[in-house]
Amino acid sequence: MSISVLPKIALEEAYAHPDDVSRILASDEELARMSDGGGVMPSYYRPVLEKLGEFDDIRLNAMDAAGIEHVVLSLTAPGIQAITDPSQATAEARRQNDFLAEQVARHPDRYSGFAAVALQQPDRAVEEIRRAITELGFKGVLVNGYTNVGDNDHGLYLDDPAYYPFWEALTELDVPLYLHPRPALPGGLIPYDGHPEMKGATWGFGTETASHTVRLLLGGHFDRFPDAQLILGHLGEALPALLWRTQHMFDLNPFAQKINKTLPEYFADNIWITTSGAFSDHALTNAILTVGADHILFSVDYPYSTNAEASAWIDQAPISELDRRKIAHSNSRNLLSLG
Known about the structure:
Elements: E1 8-15, H1 18-25, H2 28-37, H3 42-52, H4 57-66, E2 68-75, H5 86-106, E3 111-115, H6 122-134, E4 140-144, E5 147-148, E6 155-156, H7 164-173, E7 177-180, H8 204-218, H9 221-224, E8 230-232, H10 234-237, H11 239-252, H12 263-270, E9 271-274, H13 281-290, E10 296-297, H14 307-316, H15 321-336
Parallel strand pairs: 1-2, 2-3, 3-4, 4-7, 7-8, 8-9, 9-10
Antiparallel strand pairs: 5-6
């Protein structure tokens, strides 16, 4: 008796423009700078970069071998958020979205896109997401953490009032925002002095993104925008394991903050998490118990993680077959209106 392959949809799958890949790979100094910015070694980043700029045989064959039917592509971190010149950021977001739309059009049954946005110019960002969703057919937006403002040492988080029109547009368009990690602002990097191995995905990315999310939660962001849809990667950046303590201590020490719901209620109403780069049975079980299987989405984090490892794990994870199917594909189809 043959066993059917579990179909899968993945939605934290990165790309880089081939021109940018060529430029970085041509310079050892640039490769070292980009690697340091991501908290990785050049020897790790070089083969990843080569895959980031490829959209045909290598990427598609890796999907086929793992039973991944469809992926949502997005610009790799730090993306537009790290550009300090506002006009340049706006132009680059449009350039990247046009390029991504071309790749999706070449393989429409295999690829969709999350838009890049330049929140350095919030009004223009609203225009761009409307274009990306209504004209280019993208399924949402991906923002790489805070947005640099003025220089590399300062940034705005997604709860800033300047971004309220942006959130209003997202809820009107009924599309999610994927909050992707990036390293903390320089002042937040102090614990990592002398420990470069800590500041990227090994540790720092998760703590920065979790803090960003808790800022939104405790600041009443989802009371202000009750229909907002937020996606977090890496099984929720450890938040499912920390929700009880965070809620408990906030109840004891709310300071001047007031929110209308509990943190688990906001997760039930506004937040989805993906499995990207976090292939742990224990973490998945905890997430199902805390967040619920309906709000968990399969993802790989390709090419930073491998399709084969992610797919083999979800195929065998100790969960019900119903939850496996929800996580592997049906939740993403429903949230992103995929065919």
